[in-house]
Amino acid sequence: MPELPEVETIARGLHTLVQGRRITGIRLLTPGVLRAGDPDSLPGMTITHVSRRAKLLLVHLDQGDCLAFHLKMTGRVWVASQGQALPKHTHLVCDLDGGDRMVFEDTRRFGFWGIYGEDDLQAWSFFKSLGPEPLESTAEELAKRLGARRTGVKGLLLNQTVLAGIGNIYADESLFAARIHPASLAANIPAARLLRLCTELRRILLEAISAGGSTINDYRNAYGKSGIFQNSFQVYGKKGEPCPGCAKPLQAAQIAGRTSTHCPLCQKKY
Fold first, then answer.
1. Which of 87, 117, 176, 182 is deepest in the core (most CB within 10 A)?
2. Which residues are catalytically annotated?
3. Average pLDDT, whole number, for the chain?
4. Distance CA 142, CA 53 (A)
5. In what side-by-side order are the strands of the sheet with 23-28?
6. Cα 261 to Cα 176, 178, 194, distances in angstroms
7. Please, what is the Cα angle at 213 between 110 and 205, to 5 degrees?
8. In Å, how far from its chain's centre is CA 194?
9. Whether 171 contacts 186, CB under 8 Å
10. Burial (Cβ within 10 Å: 0-12, 13-18, ≥19) of residue 253
């Protein structure tokens, strides 16, 4: 599933491609992926900017409406040139002035989108429940938020109401960087170690954005290109490979409902 760096990368690229473009037509090919709003209201509106909130991609329009896309596991939003063939699993096509098209495709159909006015977006229960953005808070603020809870730290990192935008990749990578076992209880982790975790999390997210995100299987940015941060993974998806710290084999366990790759020697359990 695209996480914060991947959706941020898509948002930045899409913004460059569609800012100031007018929507001239809409084709909703799979009605079931629409969660809110009337697509027939969109033609004539102009895209002002594209942003991200948590793992949501937000396309803002000049009359105050917003197209919110949740890409889930295999969703993509990209721009197809005039005459370019569209993939089999295309669910939405927004025709733009000049002949280009903004396309929402999703092979597995877990993704969805909706049209929200400003008040509607803020009232949407999912949107309203989102926690703070890791890159818009200080490491100290994030550490205090995590340390106040007597629950597993891996589950907290994945909980979108606690921190927005973090998924399995960047949870595993930041826990390893801070040398914290993913099964640790957050309230048991020393304050200095929690601060290191949140500092490393912010660093890793910024590095991943600079690398265009991580491509495991399906992720592509708005230009159709893969990310390269997967080449910098220390532990994610590397069960059985030597730990970068001690060279012992990395292990994987089901923690917080997700496969958590870690080093049982380097990462202390609190």
1. 176
2. 2-3, 55, 258
3. 94
4. 17
5. 23-28, 90-96, 101-106, 75-80
6. 9, 14, 19
7. 105
8. 22
9. no
10. middle
Structure tokens belonging to residue 261: 């790759």
- The two tokens of residue 207 are 């590095």
pTM listed for this prediction: 0.92
Residue 100 and residue 230: Cα distance in Å, rounded? 31
Could you report how far apart the first and last alpha carbons of the chain are, in Å?
29
| pLDDT above 70 (res 186) | yes
Which of 73, 71, 250 lies closest to 175 in space, CA to CA? 250
Residue count of the chain: 270
Residue 18, token pair as written in the block: 């569609």
Instruction: Dump pLDDT digits (tens) for 120-153.
Output: 999 999 999 999 999 999 999 999 999 999 999 9
pLDDT > 80? residue 216: no
pLDDT one-digit tens code per residue, 235-263: 999 999 999 999 999 999 999 999 999 99
* pLDDT at 98 > cutoff 90: yes
Residue 222: how many CB atoms within 10 A of its CB?
22
d(CA 179, CA 245): 10
Structure token digits, residue 40? 């027939």
Specify the amino acid at residue 12.
Answer: R
Looking up tokens 């909980």 gives 159
